[in-house]
């Protein structure tokens, strides 16, 4: 089997092995997504599954951490301690239920800062801003970013005042930067 790209651009022939590695990797992961996630289109709707999502009487936080041995949600809400473990759900998904408090308020206050602390399968520990965070703030002292739990109270939420504009009939390209990704 051959790829047409090699006929169109023979200078790629020396890289054929690496290109085929990429093609095989793509095909493998596409198959995995179809098998485990319901297809590429469904997987692209990850925001409905990952990050912080409201459920009955609380939130569920879910992250895709395929090489994690263990993971913890840390932040101001738990004094940055490993007291809120995520549990594996399969296919690299990890999640934790965050029930509302007895008074009905959320466990994570609006604007509270947080991260995910992860131990990888090879024993290394590191912290990451949640991939699906809606907002991140930079610490002026360390220059590092923290994720921010952004769920403003109803009275503070932005309300659109105008109807959504109609979808254009054709694509409009605002700006293009040809060559910015290469030396030429």
TrEMBL record:
Gene Ontology MF terms in the entry: 1,4-alpha-glucan branching enzyme activity; hydrolase activity, hydrolyzing O-glycosyl compounds
InterPro entries named in the record: Glyco_hydro_13_N (IPR004193), Ig-like_fold (IPR013783), Ig_E-set (IPR014756)
Membrane-spanning residues: none
Residue stretches making up the Glycoside hydrolase family 13 N-terminal domain: 50-132
UniProt protein name: Glycoside hydrolase family 13 N-terminal domain-containing protein
Entries under Pfam families matching the protein: CBM_48 (PF02922)
Taxonomy of the source species: Eukaryota, Sar, Alveolata, Dinophyceae, Peridiniales
Organism per entry: Zooxanthella nutricula
Gene Ontology CC terms, in alphabetical order: cytoplasm
CDD domains reported in the protein's UniProt record: E_set_GBE_euk_N
Any GO BP annotation: carbohydrate metabolic process
Matching PANTHER family: 1,4-ALPHA-GLUCAN-BRANCHING ENZYME (PTHR43651:SF3)
